[in-house]
């Protein structure tokens, strides 16, 4: 039997979203969203609850009416096209499977609606189930499947109709951690092999980082940043993106231009740190992740790094290393270290300047 082939159309842009607005009554929930997606690309829309990511997905699918702007799929304006005529398949968080149907019935549901013969439906479904490692489960009720198997059935139903675009709305959130990792690897592998265009909504940063070619970070109905996982992780464009991508520790710095380069000073430092890098001038807030901070001897010299005086207040052993809570001033920071260090020890908390995300404090 042939493998399901999802055609990658020749247009240079699969999806064009231009100045898209959505209102819920008098409340605007999408504020002029612009986004282009190329054929065969996997996009993750990442954001916290209520940021507008699911509204954006549902508007692309046609389940939510746009209040303004344009949506073009492979060059065709579909903003007024009903969902069933957009060539889109959607996977839902709840799976949305028919409990009274078998695996065969669920995966073949969309094919039957399209008038495909019973024999052709079964042939297509068997091909899809083989791809998803569900062979032999054709006649089993979906209520008798595991969570991971149900998710694969939902994916199979979406892929069986060979859509131009696959939309995924938090598809892995109901799975336990181990199964979630396995299924997301399977989805990404299938997408890479079959070449279809996919957009997935998620609040899980790791899920977005491991599955997507590009990440769209949303905040309050607007796109905050678009880029590759590495770009968004390493070079956040705003305090919100930095914090959302895990750099949620902050310290206040003062940056001035000195004779030999930038002079960077934190509260508690006796002398400024000289730095050859680039940074905004004046009062600056530095955002950083836990894994950036290290512990060193309090009096040790350190180039291109802020060293704050601190005290170890807590020690735990999660396995593989010790985890310390270091107090500096009125702030506490989590630091990992291979060494066993005594509580109450005065230490230096080292923060490499090149690993800090610096933004003007007023931003």
TrEMBL record:
<dbReference type="GO" id="GO:0016887">
    <property type="term" value="F:ATP hydrolysis activity"/>
</dbReference>
<dbReference type="InterPro" id="IPR013611">
    <property type="entry name" value="Transp-assoc_OB_typ2"/>
</dbReference>
<dbReference type="InterPro" id="IPR050093">
    <property type="entry name" value="ABC_SmlMolc_Importer"/>
</dbReference>
<dbReference type="InterPro" id="IPR017871">
    <property type="entry name" value="ABC_transporter-like_CS"/>
</dbReference>
<protein>
    <submittedName>
        <fullName>ABC transporter ATP-binding protein</fullName>
    </submittedName>
</protein>
<dbReference type="GO" id="GO:0140359">
    <property type="term" value="F:ABC-type transporter activity"/>
</dbReference>
<dbReference type="InterPro" id="IPR003593">
    <property type="entry name" value="AAA+_ATPase"/>
</dbReference>
<dbReference type="GO" id="GO:0005524">
    <property type="term" value="F:ATP binding"/>
</dbReference>
<dbReference type="GO" id="GO:0043190">
    <property type="term" value="C:ATP-binding cassette (ABC) transporter complex"/>
</dbReference>
<keyword id="KW-0067">ATP-binding</keyword>
<dbReference type="InterPro" id="IPR027417">
    <property type="entry name" value="P-loop_NTPase"/>
</dbReference>
<comment type="similarity">
    <text>Belongs to the ABC transporter superfamily.</text>
</comment>
<dbReference type="Pfam" id="PF00005">
    <property type="entry name" value="ABC_tran"/>
</dbReference>
<dbReference type="InterPro" id="IPR008995">
    <property type="entry name" value="Mo/tungstate-bd_C_term_dom"/>
</dbReference>
<dbReference type="Pfam" id="PF08402">
    <property type="entry name" value="TOBE_2"/>
</dbReference>
<keyword id="KW-0547">Nucleotide-binding</keyword>
<keyword id="KW-0813">Transport</keyword>
<dbReference type="InterPro" id="IPR003439">
    <property type="entry name" value="ABC_transporter-like_ATP-bd"/>
</dbReference>
<feature type="domain" description="ABC transporter">
    <location>
        <begin position="15"/>
        <end position="245"/>
    </location>
</feature>
């Amino acid at each position: 039997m042939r493998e399901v082939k999802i055609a990658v159309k020749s247009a240079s842009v699969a999806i064009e979203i231009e100045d898209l607005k959505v209102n819920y009554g008098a409340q605007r929930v999408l504020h002029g969203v612009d986004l282009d997606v190329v054929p065969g690309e996997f996009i993750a829309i990442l954001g916290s609850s209520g940021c507008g990511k699911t509204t954006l997905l549902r508007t692309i699918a046609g389940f939510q009416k746009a209040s303004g702007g344009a949506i073009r799929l492979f060059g065709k304006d579909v903003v007024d096209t009903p969902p069933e005529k957009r060539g889109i398949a959607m996977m839902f968080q709840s799976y949305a499977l028919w409990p009274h149907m078998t695996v065969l019935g669920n995966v073949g549901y969309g094919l039957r609606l399209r008038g495909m013969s019973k024999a052709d439906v079964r042939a297509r479904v068997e091909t899809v189930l083989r791809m998803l490692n569900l062979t032999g489960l054709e006649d089993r009720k979906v209520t008798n499947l595991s969570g991971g198997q149900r998710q694969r059935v939902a994916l199979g139903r979406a892929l069986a109709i060979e859509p131009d675009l696959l939309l995924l709305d938090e598809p892995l959130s109901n799975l336990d951690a181990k199964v979630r990792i396995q299924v997301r690897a399977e989805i990404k592998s299938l997408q890479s092999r079959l070449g279809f265009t996919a957009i997935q909504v998620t609040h899980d940063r790791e899920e977005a980082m491991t599955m997507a070619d590009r990440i769209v970070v949303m905040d309050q109905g607007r796109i905050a940043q678009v880029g590759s996982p590495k770009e968004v992780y390493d070079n956040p464009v705003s305090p919100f993106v930095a914090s959302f991508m895990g750099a949620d520790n902050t310290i206040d710095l003062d940056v001035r231009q000195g004779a030999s380069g930038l002079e960077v000073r934190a509260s508690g430092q006796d002398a400024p740190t000289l730095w050859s890098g680039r940074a905004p001038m004046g009062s600056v807030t530095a955002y950083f992740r836990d894994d950036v901070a290290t512990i060193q001897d309090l009096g040790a010299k350190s180039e291109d790094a802020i060293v704050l005086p601190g005290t170890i207040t807590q020690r735990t052993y999660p396995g593989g290393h010790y985890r310390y809570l270091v107090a500096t001033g009125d702030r506490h920071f989590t630091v990992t270290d291979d060494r066993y260090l005594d509580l109450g020890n005065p230490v230096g908390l080292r923060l490499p300047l090149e690993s800090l995300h610096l933004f003007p404090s007023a931003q």
